[in-house]
Structures are given as structure tokens and as C-alpha cells.
Amino acid sequence: MTIGSLAPKKEKKSRKSKQVADEKAPLLPKKQEEDGFDEFDGASFSGAVFNLSTTIIGAGIMSLPATMRELGLIPGIAVIIFMAFLTEKSIEMLIRFSRAGKLASYGGLMGDAFGKYGKALAQICVAVNNIGVLIVYMIIIGDVLSGTSSSGVHHAGLLEGWFGVQWWNGRTIILLVTTVAVFAPLASFKRIDSLRFTSALSVALAVIFLVITVGIAIVKIISGGVEMPRFIPIVTDLTSFFKLFTVVPVLVTAYICHYNVHNIENELEDSTQMQGVVRTSLAMCSSVYIMTSFFGFLLFGDATLDDVLANFDTDLGIPYGSLLNDAVRVSYAAHLMLVFPVVFYPLRLNIDGLLFPKSRPLVLENFRFASITIGLISLIFLGANFIPSIWDAFQFTGATAAVCLGFIFPAAIALRDRYEIATKKDKFFSVFMIVLAVFSNLVAIYSDAYALFKRNKTAPA
């Protein structure tokens, strides 16, 4: 059965006809009454926007104020807008080349351009990126609810602050309960459109976080408690210049949603609306990113931490500051809980494609669906309990798998130009994206490695 191809709508009039599963077949039937599912006539424009926006806005938003700390306000805002432009261009190329080949998945598109090894590489990158991101989400949720310790300093979690230290609000117990009560049920949906309401709520929670941050900043500005922020970066030597590039993996991670574009388009009632969905989502998310970065940096200045959420563990110096701190952390922890299943959905599909490339669609195999779901959630749960730093995970995934998915692979597909539809502008942007991605991330990796080496060298024995 098909869920609608990436070809124009006139080529998919019959949603009831069965097709032989092949490289170009969609992964989830749009109408499945013969297989025991309810009829599904296609996802709405708004539902697709919420699902794509939820894919974009994840934990990366918490690190964006720190990019302002490194770059200053003017370059920081300019880079956020520039990355949104590049993201829109790369997704537009993915959609155009997918339609030319009537392909319904990112892996299928890479396979069409570069063969089975290209497809496998894309699926591996989605697996690495999404597992890393989901581990980060779970770590942050654990930090917010049960607390964390860093450099010998303990930051109390919400539950510890409210009820004191109890056996049931320890990190492992909290993550286990969250996994069983929230992640597992939401990850059990077989259509991504089924998550449209939780996605809408997650976007609303991100906006609540933003509104509270803006409100706190305005109150502090009125009371004179905010200093003038830096507009440009501080560059004193070559090392400080290279350090500016460490923001690149964070910015790349903040906009990565390419692995979910095909899944969302496949379920759209009218697939020709997908480019509008992408532009609407990017415009909304970029606005949230700019405001969060601006007001977060305005509020905390050079004291802005890599995870701005940790700044809300201190005295804000305003009435009801403690209550506002709790509101910020609760809204964001709930936001991440609802983002989890949207990022998990393409992870499961790509793992299934790697392990069972010749099998029937995953949605039609209940045992395989349940086994992969349980296995992946268990792996993420274990990773969240044993990986010490979310930023180690962010820097790794942002500088490797994420940059491949977001920029290098779409550019390579356009340069390969199997259907001879790439324009000179496409090829120019493709070369530009590859050079920029490779250079920026090599410098970022070098700068991070140098800083880590220097920190270990100066640490007391």
C-alpha cells in the first residue's frame, strides 16, 4: 500500500491499490483498511508544520544563547538566519530530486544517487544523529527533574527541591518512569501524523519558555539589572578565532530535520504543500531561535552557560524568581518529552531499513515493530545513564552525522545530478555547502580537541 509518493498528486489518485515493496515504495500506507487499520486520508498542512517544527526545535535551543556569547549579538543573529537559509535550500533540493526519482525516503534517495552503500551511509548517519540527540534529551530531562553534579557542585533538580532527597526521585528511577509512562506509549504510534497534537503542544511549551525568558529580561531591563551585551566577538589571537567555529556543530544540530522531511511529506494529503510546510516551519523556528538567543544572552551576558537552562538554577534577582525558574524548567522538560517520539520515528524506520532491507514495511510487522522499538528505547535509556556530558554528544553528532544529513548529502545528490535537473545555482550552492561544512567542522573539532587537551593538561593531578 502507498501513502502517496513524492510525485505530483495526479500520479497517486488511487490510495487503495497495493504495490510491490521496492526501493521507491513509501514506508507507511496512507490507507490501510485491508490490513486492519483505520482509513487515513492524509495529514493536514498545520499538522505537518507542527511535526516538522517539533523535529527542528529540540535541545539545540538551549545552547543558542551560548553562540551569542561566543559570536556577539550581530554575528550571532546573522548566522542563525544564514543557517535557516541554507537549511531551506538543502531541503528544497532533497524534495526536488526525490520527486524526479519518485522516491519516498532519504535513504532511498541516497541509494538512487550512490547505490546501496550510499543508502546504508545515510541510514547510519540518521541512526548516529538521532540516538545521540535522544540520549541528550533524556539526560537533560534527568538533570532538570532529579538534579546533576558538575565540577563538584550539585545542582538540585525540581523534584529534589520540592520533596528533598528521596529514593524515588533519583536519576535512574525518574528516567525509568518517564521512559515507561511517556516515551514508550508515544513511540508506539505507527504514523507520524498521529503525533500532530503532541507536537503542537511541544511547540507551545517552547513558546512558553521563550515568553517567560523575555518577561524576565524586560523586568530586569526596567530595574536596571541588565548590562549592555556584546555586539561583536572578542578575538585576541588565533586560538580565540578558531574558538568561534565551535558554534557550528550546535547551529547545525539546531536545524537538522532532513531525516523527517520524507516521512512528513509521505503522509500529506497534498504533497505539493511540502515546500510551504518547510518554509513556514523554518520561519517560525528561526524566530523562536533569534528571540531565545537574544534575550537569553541579554539576561545572563558573559555568564551564559553552554546550557542556558542551567542559568535558571540561580537567583534571578526579581520577585517570584524561584517560581519562574521552576516554570522554565518544567516547560522545557515537558517540551523535550514530546519531541522525543517525533525524532524516534525516523530512527526506527532507518534502523529497520539497515537490519531488514528486504522485508515487508515495518508498519505491517507488529513483532518486528515492537522489538525494534523496545531495543532502541532501552539503548537510549542506558546511554542517558552512562554518558556524562550532553555537550560531548552534541559536538560529536553535530560535527559528523548531522552535518552530513543536513548539508553534505543533499549537496552531493545535487552534484551527482542523476536526472540532470540541477541548475548552475544548485551546483554553486552545493559546492559552497560542502566546503563550508567540511572546513567549519574540521576547525570546530580541532578547537574542541585543543581546549580539552589544554584543560586536561592544566587540571590538578
Automatic annotation (TrEMBL):
Any GO CC annotation of this UniProt entry: organelle membrane
Biased composition (Basic and acidic residues): 19-31
Cellular localization per UniProt: Membrane
Main location: membrane
UniProt GO MF annotations: L-amino acid transmembrane transporter activity
Domain of life: Eukaryota
Region: Disordered, residue numbers: 1-31
Transmembrane segments: 71-87, 120-141, 168-189, 201-222, 242-261, 282-301, 330-347, 367-387, 393-415, 427-446
Keyword Transmembrane found: yes
Bilayer topology annotation: Multi-pass membrane protein
Domain Amino acid transporter transmembrane: 43-447
Full protein name: Amino acid transporter
UniProt entry keywords in alphabetical sequence: Amino-acid transport, Membrane, Transmembrane, Transmembrane helix, Transport
Keyword DNA-binding: no
Pfam families the UniProt entry points to: Aa_trans
